[in-house]
Design goal:
Layout: E1 2-6, H1 11-22, E2 26-31, H2 39-48, E3 61-63, E4 70-74, H3 80-90, E5 94-97, H4 106-109, H5 111-131, E6 136-142, H6 166-185, E7 189-194, E8 197-198, H7 207-217, E9 220-223, E10 230-231, E11 234-235, H8 236-247, E12 271-276, E13 282-283, H9 284-295, E14 300-303, H10 319-325, H11 333-347
Parallel strand pairs: 1-2, 1-5, 2-4, 5-6, 6-7, 7-12, 8-11, 9-14
Antiparallel strand pairs: 3-4, 10-13
Helix pairs in contact: 1-8, 3-5, 5-6, 7-9, 9-11
Length: 349
Amino acid sequence: MKFLLTGTAGFIGFHLAKRLLERGDEVVGLDCINDYYDVNLKYARLGQTGISRGEVEYGKFVQSSKFNNYKFIQLKLEDREAILKLFSVEKFDRVCNLAAQAGVRYSLQNPFTYIDSNIVGFINILEGCRHNGVAHLAYASSSSVYGLNEEMPFSVHHNVDHPISLYAASKKSNELMAHTYSYLYGLPTTGLRFFTVYGSWGRPDMALSLFTKAILEGKPIDVYNNGNMKRDFTYIDDIVEGIIRVLDNPPAGNPQWSGKAPDPGTSVAPYRVYNIGNSKPVKLMDFIEAIEEALGRKAIKNFLPLQPGDVPATWADVTDLAENFDYKPNTDIKEGVRRFVEWFLTFNN
C-alpha cells in the first residue's frame, strides 16, 4: 500500500516509517522539522532512513538512499495549498497523521502554535483524504484528553470533556473533526490515544531524556507532585505494533450505537478511538529507580508540586485494542529503560 506518514522526523513517526518500509509498503514521509527541540536529533532520525540533511529543502522531495520505497518532503501541515496538491498528485491508500505541535507545558506559553499545526493542519489532512479516496486515516490523539477524569483505567468509552491544557484540547478537537468527516463523507478514521511513549530516539524534552542527562551530569532532576505520580509508560516498539495493526484495519460503523446512549469510543459512522498503552502504570519513583539501575548512578532529586496542565496519573484501558487486534504490549519498564540508556550513551558519545 501507499502511505502518507506525517511526522517522520519525529519520535513515533521515525519508528513507524522504518517498520512500514521494512515490510515493503511505499511511504511518503512529511515533516516541517520545526525547532521545538534540537533539530539535529530530527535530522539524525531522518538519516537512519536514508534522507540526507543536505538535500532537505522546503517543498522538495528527497529520495531515500536506503529504501527505494521511501521519499520525504518538508512541509507544514498548515500550508493548505501544498498539502492538498500533495494528496492530489500522490493518491495515497492510507494516511497516518503523527505530525503535531507536542508538549503540555509548551502550550501554556505558545497557544497559537497548537492552533496552526494541530487544528488548521488537521483540517487540511481531512480535506486531502476526503477528496482523494483515502481508504483510512489514522491519527495521533493523546492520553492528555482525559484531563480531569479520575476513573481509572481511562477508557475510550468515558466522556472526555474537561481537558486541562490547550494541547489536550487540540487533540480532542481532532477526534471531533475526524468524526464529522467519518459521518458526512464516509471517511474511515481512527484516533490513537498514546500513553507516555518512551524508547530509543525519544524526544529530549521528555522525562526519560531529561533525567538520564541530568543524572549523568550529576545535576538534580525535577520530580513533580513530590514524586506521587504514575504514568502508563509504553515502549516505542509496542506503540508501533499497535499503530500497524490499526492501520491495516479500517473501522466500520457500530450497528449497536445509539444516540440515546452515545458511546464516545465508537459511532454509527466508520469511526473509532483506541487507547495505546502498556496498561501497567508505573510509579514515578520506580521509573527513576530503573534509570538509576541502568546508569549505575543515583539521582539527586528536587521535589516540586504538580505543574499546571499536568495530571497525577494515567492508566490505559486497552481492552478494545486487545479484543479487536490481539494487541498485547510486552516490554517491561526496566527492559525498555535499559534499551533507551544504551541508545542514549551511544548517540551522545
